[in-house]
Automatic annotation (TrEMBL):
Organism: Artemia franciscana (Brine shrimp)
One example of a Gene Ontology biological process annotation: fucose metabolic process
Keywords annotated in UniProt: Carbohydrate metabolism, Disulfide bond, Endoplasmic reticulum, Fucose metabolism, Glycoprotein, Glycosyltransferase, Notch signaling pathway, Signal, Transferase
GO molecular function terms attached to this record: peptide-O-fucosyltransferase activity
Keyword check for Chaperone: no
Reactions the enzyme catalyzes: L-seryl-[protein] + GDP-beta-L-fucose = 3-O-(alpha-L-fucosyl)-L-seryl-[protein] + GDP + H(+); L-threonyl-[protein] + GDP-beta-L-fucose = 3-O-(alpha-L-fucosyl)-L-threonyl-[protein] + GDP + H(+)
Full protein name: GDP-fucose protein O-fucosyltransferase 1
Keyword Cytoplasm on entry: no
Family: Belongs to the glycosyltransferase 65 family.
InterPro entries: GDP-Fuc_O-FucTrfase, POFUT1
Length: 402
């Protein structure tokens, strides 16, 4: 049988099969996953999840997944952008740190952005030939550029992958609504995969809050084994046996300032999750945005009685009200708990497992847990909602969470 060889510089012969094996092993060791991806002839969608924190980014992710599906392009799963105390720049956390890939693949073509940059980009999106898409010039309107790396987290995000852009494309008047308009065909006609194998966006190709029709896509977001395990261990080891109530208290200083605008922006942030996308179920109020002590204690007490709960789990961005809740429910023999060093994703996984969850209607963080529970068919409620009939008014204004 004929053998094929490559010669080293010193004249020694090496069997090509051995070289191939060593090369393949090297690829597997350096790749972010053990999976080898083929080039998708339909192209790819990349974006920076550069608006808001985890709750907002999750809303945008669901819309981006629907957008990529409509265009039949593979979605490069971006890392989650986090802002940590003491860090001058944003930190990029791989998508797979928090979620599994396999459930998403059952809906559409996806791959970690780390794998895209390592395996695919050198062929279809090489350095020196990288285009970025935005609706209109960003930053200086006279620059005729998307300025995709201007500011934080934009710059740190793309720098994570050593990406620099050589050209900007303004896609207006096209938009991301592939549900109510024939936008999928419009994008394919104007930006074919042959001419534009990669559509890289300065921000998510999706609206905020998540469109009503895309809420169902949350079923494909499944926590990673690590997040699942940490949530289960906390419930098993920290909470007493029996039912428990999960509550989310959004009450930090930045939230207090945001709630001051609730009267002028009744569809603020994720309000549609309880008020409806056309405000058909009422109008946002200060009490819904920043519930009073009385509202919190009253609704929590009712939930404890309704579900014969033995404990309360509290997730919060600021004041967990632990001492106050303990004092209030001591006579009911109900314990109150929080994670000692909260991790937002683990908090959400625990809230998703509670027997009953009381959410903040306006918060996109609450909205994540509410969508997960809706998919599972388990009950949730909102602070200060439903409202009394005389308080219900119609409004059609919208806003985005910062």
């Amino acid at each position: 049988k004929q053998q094929f060889y490559l010669k080293r510089e010193n004249g020694e012969k090496m069997n090509w099969k051995i070289i191939f094996c060593f090369t393949l092993l090297s690829m597997l060791e350096t790749s972010s996953s053990s999976k080898i991806y083929n080039v998708d002839p339909s192209g790819y969608v990349l974006y920076c999840p550069c608006m808001g924190r985890f709750g907002n980014q999750a809303d945008h992710f669901l819309g981006s997944l629907a957008f990529a599906k409509a265009l039949d392009r593979t979605l490069a799963l971006p890392p989650w952008v986090e802002y940590r105390y003491g860090e001058p720049k944003s930190v990029q956390v791989p998508f797979t740190t928090y979620f599994k890939i396999e459930p998403l693949e059952s809906f559409h073509k996806v791959m970690p952005m780390e794998d895209f940059m390592e395996q695919i980009a050198p062929t279809v999106w090489p350095p020196g030939n990288r285009t970025v898409f935005c609706y209109m010039p960003r930053g200086n309107p006279d620059s005729e550029s998307c300025n995709a790396k201007e500011g934080n987290p934009f710059g740190p995000f793309w720098d994570t992958f050593d990406v620099d852009f050589n050209r900007s494309v303004f896609y207006g008047p096209l938009n991301y609504d592939v549900i109510h308009h024939n936008m999928g065909d419009a994008w394919r006609d104007k930006y074919s995969s042959e001419d534009y194998p990669v559509l890289a966006f300065t921000g998510a190709p999706a609206s905020f809050p998540v469109q009503e029709e895309n809420r169902r896509l949350h079923r494909y977001l499944e926590w990673s084994d690590d997040i699942d395990q940490r949530a289960e261990e906390f419930i098993r080891n920290a909470l007493p046996k029996g039912a428990f109530i999960g509550i989310h208290l959004r009450n930090g200083p930045d939230w207090e300032r945001a709630c001051e605008h609730i009267d002028s922006t009744p569809s603020l942030f994720a309000a549609a999750q309880c008020l409806g996308y056309r405000n058909e179920y009422g109008r946002a109020t200060q009490e819904m945005c920043l519930p009073s002590r009385e509202t919190i204690l009253q609704q929590t007490r009712k939930a404890i009685k309704d579900y014969s709960a033995k404990s309360i789990f509290v997730a919060s961005d600021s004041d967990h009200m632990i001492d106050e809740l303990k004092k209030e429910f001591k006579r009911m023999n109900v314990s109150v708990h929080r994670m000692p060093n909260p991790v937002p994703q683990v908090d959400l996984a625990i809230l998703g497992r509670s027997n009953y969850f009381i959410a903040n209607c306006i918060s996109s963080f609450s909205a994540f847990a509410k969508r997960e529970r809706d998919i599972k068919g388990i009950p949730s409620g909102f602070w200060a909602f439903p409202q009394k009939p005389q308080n219900i008014q119609n409004s059609s204004s919208r806003s985005d969470e910062l």
